[in-house]
Design a protein that fits this description.
The structure is a single chain. The protein is of the alpha/beta class. The protein is built from 8 helices and 6 strands. Strands 3-4-2-1-5-6 form a 6-stranded parallel beta sheet, with helices on both faces. Helix 5 links the parallel strand 3 and strand 4. It is globular. The relative contact order is 0.19.
């Protein structure tokens, strides 16, 4: 399918919404919905990288607000992160650099350490980059960036200075943002990076977002006229 697409995003981001609703519609527990969501996540990430050759993929996996969910659900998600952020990642995603977006200080120590170890182990990989937001907040990311800028004694701040202090420093902005389940809001995800992104809101829940759905999203992206504030000249 990818051969039919002439214009692909360099940076694609996903808000993986609807695991719980997908499970409920099937009479399953929310935890099983999250398990199915992680399984789908691995497939979509691999397809983006190795199927379409998209260089950067960003995932909103766990927000700072998600700590308000029931304790059992949070604990289950933390266990999923523990299984995902291990050495098997290195073989599962060859050529992929892992980047944790979010405040590690708010995470269980072992998960923060696993994320740091993966970042270190894949730091030299430069073909693909996977950003995963765990304990992430777009507003907090900007606050952290500003505080780091102040600590460094920088007295003149422009857009590039801020971009250089984000979790995604050195990366291009998001070209295509996809949020499943039909919800049409950012929920505090990558507020700076999506300034000129195209948005796509499929109604299916995340575990049902398959290869066909991904192709439809990328196909829709082909038809978007990205002018970045300029006026398109008529031929």
């Amino acid at each position: 399918m990818q051969k039919e697409l002439k214009k692909l995003p360099k940076h694609i981001a996903f808000i993986i919404d609807g695991n719980g609703r997908w499970a409920k519609s099937r009479g399953l527990t929310r935890s099983l919905g999250h398990k199915a969501g992680f399984s789908r996540l691995e497939k979509i990430i691999k397809e983006c990288f190795y199927g379409y050759g998209i260089p950067i993929v960003s995932i909103y996996a766990f927000s700072t607000e998600n700590w308000n969910r029931p304790e059992a659900e949070v604990n289950y998600l933390m266990d999923l992160f523990r299984k995902y952020l291990n050495k098997s990642f290195l073989k599962k995603y060859p050529e992929v650099r892992f980047n944790h977006m979010g405040d590690p200080n708010g995470l269980p120590d072992d998960i923060a350490k696993k994320a740091k170890n993966l970042m270190d182990a894949t730091a030299d990989r430069d073909k693909f980059t996977l950003n995963i937001g765990i304990n992430y907040s777009g507003q907090d990311e900007l606050v952290i960036a500003v505080n780091n800028i102040l600590e460094e004694g920088i007295t003149h701040v422009d857009r590039q200075v801020i971009a250089d202090h984000l979790f995604t420093h050195g990366q291009p902005p998001v070209d295509l943002m996809i949020r499943t389940s039909g919800e049409q809001r950012l929920s505090n995800f990558m507020l700076w990076q999506v300034a000129y992104a195209e948005f796509y809101f499929p109604k299916c829940h995340w575990p049902a977002f398959n290869s066909r759905q991904l192709f439809k999203a990328l196909e829709e992206y082909q038809n978007r006229d990205r002018r970045f504030g300029a006026i398109k000249e008529e031929k």
